[in-house]
From TrEMBL:
<feature type="domain" description="UspA">
    <location>
        <begin position="135"/>
        <end position="270"/>
    </location>
</feature>
<comment type="similarity">
    <text>Belongs to the universal stress protein A family.</text>
</comment>
<protein>
    <submittedName>
        <fullName>Universal stress protein</fullName>
    </submittedName>
</protein>
<dbReference type="InterPro" id="IPR014729">
    <property type="entry name" value="Rossmann-like_a/b/a_fold"/>
</dbReference>
<dbReference type="InterPro" id="IPR006015">
    <property type="entry name" value="Universal_stress_UspA"/>
</dbReference>
<feature type="domain" description="UspA">
    <location>
        <begin position="6"/>
        <end position="128"/>
    </location>
</feature>
<dbReference type="InterPro" id="IPR006016">
    <property type="entry name" value="UspA"/>
</dbReference>
<dbReference type="Pfam" id="PF00582">
    <property type="entry name" value="Usp"/>
</dbReference>
Length: 274
């Protein structure tokens, strides 16, 4: 995770971006950062006045909530996703709404949100609903990539003073076995998943002794089970890619699925080695 620095919030005047702005202000208020920058990206320099009329009041709205912190408004030019990705080089966190003004339907993930989550060099939180209670849920898969997500999730749970729910979803080795697995085989697979969870959690539980942890080993589809586990969550945290991911800047299918289906804010955390 990037050290203490700046939270960048992409706004465009849509209700979704205002929800993201409120979420980011709460994060800053909890002591996550010393700076919050609200950014409106305009593709037309002739529309700068309109852009400032959008982003300026947003920054002013949250400034009283953040005494002692540096709160700024900025109008940038270019493609919104490209600008936010560029800003991620020096940011601690990028926050965006689940969709913007051009979205076709409420259930669709906005193209800007998806592109920023895919290419950002720092953690990205896509905010669909802003919640101030509930646990932090983190999806794990025994891959090195999920360790960065786990550290981020423990840090968030410590700030929120809430429970951490660590979820590992397992599937039977045969997607459609001719003979259904026996009960003891399912028990063995579940126990193996629980052992994997315990191994992954061991270092962080020592570093965060005050964070209560609940381990969940669930059979099913990773996206569906994570979305279900996060129904009442304050935050869902997933790695940028998992065991099935391949090198480069591509977002893993589980991470992308979580962005589409989870109803709470979703943090996408890239491994520093990616």
């Amino acid at each position: 995770m990037h050290s203490r620095g700046q939270v960048v919030v992409g706004v465009d005047g849509s209700p979704e971006s205002l929800i993201a702005a409120a979420w980011a202000a709460d994060e800053a208020e909890l002591g996550r950062t010393g700076q919050v920058q609200f950014v409106m990206v305009s593709g037309d320099r002739l529309a700068d006045d309109e852009a400032w009329e959008t982003v300026g009041p947003i920054a002013n709205r949250f400034t009283p909530q953040l005494p002692g912190l540096e709160v700024t408004a900025r109008v940038a030019h270019g493609d919104p996703a490209d600008v936010l990705v560029q800003l991620s080089d020096d940011a601690q966190l990028i926050a965006v709404g689940s969709r913007g003004r051009s979205a076709l339907a409420a259930t669709l993930l906005g193209s800007v949100s998806a592109k920023v989550a895919t290419h950002s060099r720092c953690p990205v939180v896509v905010v669909r609903k802003h919640r101030r209670n509930g646990p932090v849920v983190v999806g794990l898969d025994n891959s090195p990539h999920s360790q960065a997500a786990l550290r981020y999730a423990f840090d968030a749970a410590a700030r929120y003073e809430c429970e951490l729910v660590a979820v590992q979803v397992w599937e039977h080795a045969e997607p459609a076995p001719i003979v259904p697995p026996l009960e003891h085989e399912l028990v063995d697979l579940r126990d193996e998943a629980l052992r994997g969870l315990a191994e992954q959690l061991s270092g962080c539980t020592e570093a965060y002794p005050n964070v209560p942890v609940r381990k969940v080993a669930q059979r099913g589809h990773p996206v569906a089970e994570l979305a279900a586990a996060a129904e009442e969550a304050r935050l869902l945290v997933v790695g940028h890619r998992g065991r099935g991911g391949f090198a480069g800047l591509l977002l893993g299918s589980v991470a992308m699925g979580a962005l589409h289906h989870a109803q709470c804010p979703v943090a996408i955390v890239r491994d520093a080695k990616e």
